[in-house]
Specification:
The protein is of the alpha/beta class. It is 45% helix and 13% strand. The chain has a single domain, classed as 3-Layer(aba) Sandwich (Rossmann fold). It contains 10 helices and 7 strands. It binds NADP nicotinamide-adenine-dinucleotide phosphate (NAP). This is 3-oxoacyl-[acyl-carrier protein] reductase.
């Protein structure tokens, strides 16, 4: 889709790349010549897809697993990045999930802590841990995954998840200003309703069909719809004058 050497030689880290949107982002970076460290999620769920198996064999892709909710999980990922890459050109903070639907009155402290730690605190910790490496790159970029629910508040039971995505959106804007003098751009991609395992877990087929009917483009999104937005925002050639922005990828589900 993009030029096959758009990211030639670039070192790219993608979190939550074992499946869904993150896996497709990693695939498209590999197609454009990048070296990619994929954080594959908590643990291998099965054999790697063929494209990844080949890229690993060519030492262009590296896969690491780390549970961000476990003590030392993020530290293990950061160590692996440091041992692999002399600098990081692109960081994609994408790992996250709703964890569950928790009605406000029943929400436990543990559920609250889990959702915040996974979707919010981990982004701060991974970013902080890789900043020195990003500063060493000539034109580094950070792209964070947020959500349409950061603006809408989401559907019932997802208020805390939605609020964590709003946090990441605002955090990214602050960071964009702070890191601009160092030549580091920070932007977000905000997916709408995307057909990955995420919604297979948290939304019924009826709910998804009802949502589909409200979308001006009349279909749910795919990981393939989302990934090019990340590559665009990561490329200094394509978006070198864009920082502190949120790119909504939602088929027109939210137009404001
Ligand atoms: N799908 C949508 O409609 C949608 C809409 C808006 C925003 N998003 C956001 O887009 C991102 C990707 O979601 P997706 O749709 O591709 O979902 P997905 O297929 O469920 O992928 C989520 C990724 O995050 C990882 N992850 C989950 N819990 C983790 C933990 N405790 N420690 C480390 N990694 C963990 C998963 O690893 P495991 O394999 O170990 O679970 C997986 O790699 C998420 O941040 C999500 O919030 C999705």
């Amino acid at each position: 889709m993009f030029h096959p050497s758009l990211f030639k030689g670039a070192n790219v880290v993608v979190t939550g790349a074992g499946r869904g949107i993150g896996l497709e982002i990693a695939r498209q970076f590999l197609d454009c010549g990048a070296h990619v460290l994929l954080h594959g999620g908590r643990a291998a769920a099965g054999p790697l897809p063929d494209f990844l198996e080949n890229a690993v064999a060519e030492a262009r892709a590296h896969v690491v697993y780390a549970d961000f909710l476990e003590e030392g999980g993020i530290g293990a990922l950061l160590q692996r990045v440091d041992s692999l890459f002399p600098h990081v050109d692109v960081l994609i903070n994408n790992a996250g999930t709703m964890v569950g639907r928790f009605p406000a009155a029943d929400l436990t402290d543990e559920q609250y802590d889990t959702v915040v730690r996974l979707n919010q605190t981990s982004v701060v910790e991974v970013t902080r841990g890789l900043l020195r490496s990003l500063r060493r790159a000539p034109h580094a970029a950070i792209v964070n995954t947020v959500s349409i629910s950061a603006l809408t508040g989401g559907s019932p039971g997802s208020a805390i998840y939605s609020a964590t995505k709003a946090f990441v959106s605002t955090y990214s804007k602050g960071l964009a200003r702070e890191l601009a003098p160092a030549g580091i751009r920070v932007n977000c991609v905000s997916p709408g309703t995307i057909t990955t395992d995420f919604h297979a877990r948290y939304s019924s087929a009826e709910k998804l069909e009802a949502t589909r009917k409200t979308i001006p483009l009349q279909r749910l999104g795919t990981a393939e719809d989302c990934a090019p937005a990340y590559l665009f925002l990561a490329s200094n050639t394509l978006s070198g004058y864009i920082t502190g922005q949120v790119l909504e990828v939602n088929g027109g589900q939210l137009i404001c």
